[in-house]
Specification:
A hairpin with a 6-residue loop joins β8 and β9. By secondary structure, the chain is of the alpha+beta class. The chain has seven helices and 19 strands. Among the domains are: 44 residues, no CATH class; 100 residues, no CATH class. The chain is 21% helix and 31% strand. One of its GO terms (molecular function) is molybdenum ion binding. This is Mitochondrial amidoxime-reducing component 1.
C-alpha cells in the first residue's frame, strides 16, 4: 500500500514520487489526509479536455485469465464492461478451496475461448468439446462458493460438475481439480485487501480495477525494442487508444471516451509474468519477453518493483463507448 500511496500522492499533488514517499510515510495522520484528498478529487471530473486520439480496440474477458471477446461497442458501468449477459471478468477458475488460478501458473488457459449469445456462455479450447452454461440458471442457484482473489474474498456461484470436469481435464489432464465460478453481484467485492484503490473501482473478479487502457504508440515503442513483436492481447487491455505519443498516458489524470463516459486514472498497471504468454500459442516466452525488456526502462524502483505498462481506470460517468470514438484527456 505504501508504494501505491506514494505514486497516488505524486500524481494528485504534483510532486515527485520520492518526495511523496517522505511525506506519505512521515505520520499516520499524513497518510490519512493524503487518502482523503485523493478520494475527494477522484470524484471531481474536469471541465476542460484535450483530444488525443481515437479508441481503436475494445476487449472484454468474461472468464478471468482466458481468451477475449473483441467488440465494436460496449456499455461501461461501475462493475466493468457489459452488454446483456456479457460482462468483464465475472467467471473465474478456482481450486475446490476457492483459491483463484490464472494463466500465470497455467499458460494454456489463454487458449480457452468464451462466447456469449443471449443467456448462454459457450466455452471451447484446443482438443476439447464445447460446453454451454445458462447464465440465468446461475443467478437462481444457491450453490455458493467463497473465493479468494489476492486475499480479497467474495461469494460466487459454482457453475457445476460438468464445467468442473471440463476445466480439470483441459488445464491439468485430471492431475489437479478445478471449478468454474460466477460472480452474480452488480456490486464490487465487499472484502478488500488493504490498498489505496477505492472499493467502487475494484470491479468483479479483477486484480485491480474494472478497466485497463493501453496506448498503441507505447505498445509500438516496446515492440521496437524486442526481437519478436507481440500483439496488444499479450497485455490483456480493455481499451486500446490510437493517436497519443508513446507513454503519454502516464501523465493523464482523466480520460473521456466519446461524449459521456469519463474515467479517472487510478494507478499504473504493474506488469507480471502473464505478459510473457503468447495468446495464440499458450506458451511462455523462453527468454521471459517482453517483461524483461520492460523492466529495463519502465521500472520505477521507488514505486514498484515490476514495470508499468498501461493505466488502470475507475469510472466516474457511465456510458457507451465504441471503436472510433474520440478520446480526450486532462492532465
Amino acid at each position: 500500500m505504501i508504494n501505491k500511496l506514494a505514486w497516488t500522492m505524486s500524481r494528485f499533488l504534483d510532486i515527485q514520487p520520492k518526495v511523496a514517499v517522505s511525506i506519505g510515510l512521515s505520520t499516520a495522520i499524513g497518510v490519512g489526509i493524503a487518502y482523503g484528498v485523493v478520494k475527494y478529487f477522484n470524484n471531481q471530473p474536469p471541465t476542460k479536455w484535450r483530444k488525443v486520439g481515437q479508441l481503436s480496440k475494445i476487449y472484454c474477458f468474461p472468464i478471468k485469465s482466458c481468451g477475449p471477446i473483441a467488440l465494436e461497442e460496449i456499455n461501461c458501468e461501475n462493475l466493468g464492461q457489459h452488454v446483456g449477459e456479457l460482462r468483464d471478468r465475472v467467471f473465474m477458475v478456482v481450486r475446490p478451496s476457492g483459491e483463484f488460478v490464472t494463466a500465470r501458473t497455467y499458460p494454456k488457459m489463454v487458449l480457452i475461448m468464451p462466447r456469449i449469445e443471449g443467456n448462454v456462455l459457450s466455452i471451447t479450447a484446443p482438443g476439447m468439446g464445447e460446453i454451454k452454461i445458462n447464465i440465468l440458471d446461475l443467478y437462481a442457484s444457491n450453490n455458493v462458493l467463497k473465493i479468494t482473489v489476492h486475499s480479497e474474498n467474495a461469494n460466487c456461484i459454482d457453475c457445476g460438475d460438468t464445467a468442473a470436469e471440463w476445466f480439470t481435464k483441459y488445464i491439468s489432464s485430471g492431475k489437479e481439480s478445478f471449478r468454474l465460478v460466477f460472480y452474480p453481484s452488480c456490486e464490487p467485492k465487499s472484502e478488500l485487501r488493504e490498498r489505496i484503490i477505492d472499493r467502487s473501482d475494484t470491479g468483479a473478479l479483477h486484480d485491480e480495477t474494472s478497466y485497463m487502457l493501453m496506448n498503441e504508440a507505447s505498445f509500438d515503442d516496446l515492440n521496437a525494442r524486442i526481437e519478436k513483436p507481440v500483439t496488444p492481447l499479450q497485455y490483456r487491455p480493455n481499451f486500446v487508444v490510437k493517436g497519443p505519443q508513446a507513454w503519454d498516458e502516464d501523465s493523464w489524470k482523466w480520460v473521456k471516451i466519446g461524449n459521456e463516459t469519463i474515467f479517472r486514472n487510478v494507478q499504473p498497471c504493474i506488469r507480471c509474468i502473464l505478459t510473457n504468454i503468447d495468446p495464440e500459442s499458450g506458451e511462455r516466452h523462453p527468454k521471459m519477453e517482453p517483461l524483461n525488456t520492460l523492466k529495463k526502462f519502465r521500472t520505477f524502483e521507488k514505486i514498484a518493483a515490476n514495470p508499468w505498462f498501461g493505466i488502470h481506470l475507475g469510472i466516474r460517468s457511465n456510458g457507451k463507448v465504441k471503436v472510433g470514438d474520440d478520446v480526450y484527456v486532462n492532465y
